[in-house]
Amino acid sequence: MIGFGFSITCMHICREETIWVSPFVLSAIAITISFIVLDKDCLEKTKKLLLYLIPISIFVIIIFVICLFNYIAYGLFTLNQYSGKVWNNVMGAITSVKVEKEYDSVPVSKEAMQKLYEVSPAFNELKEYFETPQDVNWYAYGQVEGEIEEGWFSWAFIAAVDYAGYCTDAKTANNFYKKITDEVNKAYEDGRLEKKENKRTFFDFNKTDELLKNLKLAYIYQINMNGCEMRAPIDQGTDTLVDEEAIGFILEQIDKFKEITGNNSTNSKTYNYWVDRVKINSLENITKVYAKISPYLFKIAILTYILGFIIFFRKSTRFSNFKEMTLLTGILILYILRLLVISYTETAKFKGAISTMYLASTYSMQFAFEILSVWFLINSLKKKRSIKKED
User: pLDDT by residue (tens digit) across 147-174?
Assistant: First the structure.
């Protein structure tokens, strides 16, 4: 329970992926609690049920401590910017401007920005960043030409505020966000801005076919390990891992990582091209082999999973592999949920979500499911054989 409390808390803090992990966690808790309550042979039921307070307490305490540290260091009692009230208020204000042409995937269009510049002196300070070329071309992402699509806008907005000099500390940034919120809301009140009706829903069911198509694409991309390259795809067609300019940028970023975290890392002095090339070549070959056999391994795992359920429901061996099947089902549900979340993002948020980066967590789930599914079936068959011998 202690390990569970720390792991789920760390996942929430570091990756903020509890939205797709929580269904499995809650389902697993509900199932185990039901068995504890309904099992007549279960002893000390109250103590076992109270154990669930341990992970809940760990989660609440750690979140509170982090918020407290943020308050001491930055003056804001919040877990992070995205979960804070100020950020959500400013995003709510600037994404509610009524415009002539709406885009499903564009939260704040150029037309909306022009209107915001006119009514909000604070937002007008960001005009230079949005209207002039920058190091990162936010308009290049997505499919709507000349617009910053959802998923990218929040990053562009933060970058613009930083460019304007208001990200020196958390209080300064929050005060600037509050100023924008107040000015925009005042414009709504006095009629200088027209507020659109909030008709945006979690998902447009007219895109169900597209969602299912993307789900299939995400599965094919993941199971075939597409995009799992050990080499940086910058200088293709040459024997080098990356070109000199690219490797210089990478090493600079690694040095920054070392400076921020205080951890040792590869840098311009320790980087060895020949040694690293052998390592990367080896990993690349292993990846290629596994990519070829991966689809077959997964099919075998699904087959052994089904056989496991046959053992689970069979009269002579009923419920004998309850723990194993619960764990396997949980892993499989997590795997499917992650693919579904990425497919939803690809369909409703922004294009490019089906990628190795966003699917990274699915590979460990896939490997775990494949190994455990086969292993559990072998163990179940061994148990069945030993019981027959005893009889």
Answer: 888 778 888 999 999 999 998 888 899 9
The secondary structure of 40-72 as a DSSP string is TT---HHHHHHTTHHHHHHHHHHHHHHHHHHHH
Query: 293, 362 in Cβ contact below 8 A?
Result: no
Q: How many CA atoms lie within 13 A of 135 on its CB side?
A: 3
In three state form, how does the secondary structure of 9-31 look?
A: HHHHHHCCCHHHHHHHHHHHHHH
The string of DSSP letters for 285-300 reads HHHHHHHHHHHHHHHH
Is there a contact between 178 and 169 (Cβ–Cβ < 8 Å)? no
Which tens digit of pLDDT belongs to each residue from 367-385? Answer: 999 999 999 888 888 777 7
How far does the chain reach from its first CA to its final CA, in angstroms?
Answer: 38
Q: 51-57 — which CB contacts under 8 Å span 24+ positions?
A: 51/1, 52/1, 54/1, 54/2, 54/5, 55/1, 55/2, 55/4, 55/5, 55/8, 56/5, 57/5
CB 180 within 8 A of CB 94: yes
Report in angstroms the alpha-carbon separations of 231 from 125, 138, 235, 328.
41, 26, 9, 33
Measured CA to CA, the distance from residue 124 to residue 116 in angstroms comes to 7
Q: Are 95 and 157 in contact (CB under 8 A)?
A: no
**CA–CA separation, 229 and 235 (whole Å):** 13
8 A C-beta contact, residue 361 and residue 237:
no
Whole-prediction pTM? 0.64
315 vs 180: CA distance, rounded Å: 67
Label residues 346-374 b or e (16+ Cβ within 10 Å = b).
bbbbbbbbbeeebbebbbebbbbbbebbb
Report yes or no: 11 and 55 within 8 Å, Cβ to Cβ: no
Tell me the C-alpha distance between 365 and 373, whole Å: 12
Sign of CA pseudo-dihedral 350, 354, 357, 363? positive
Read off the amino acid at residue 324. Answer: E
Alpha-carbon 119 to chain mean position: 36
Q: What's the rounded mean pLDDT across residues 46-68?
A: 88
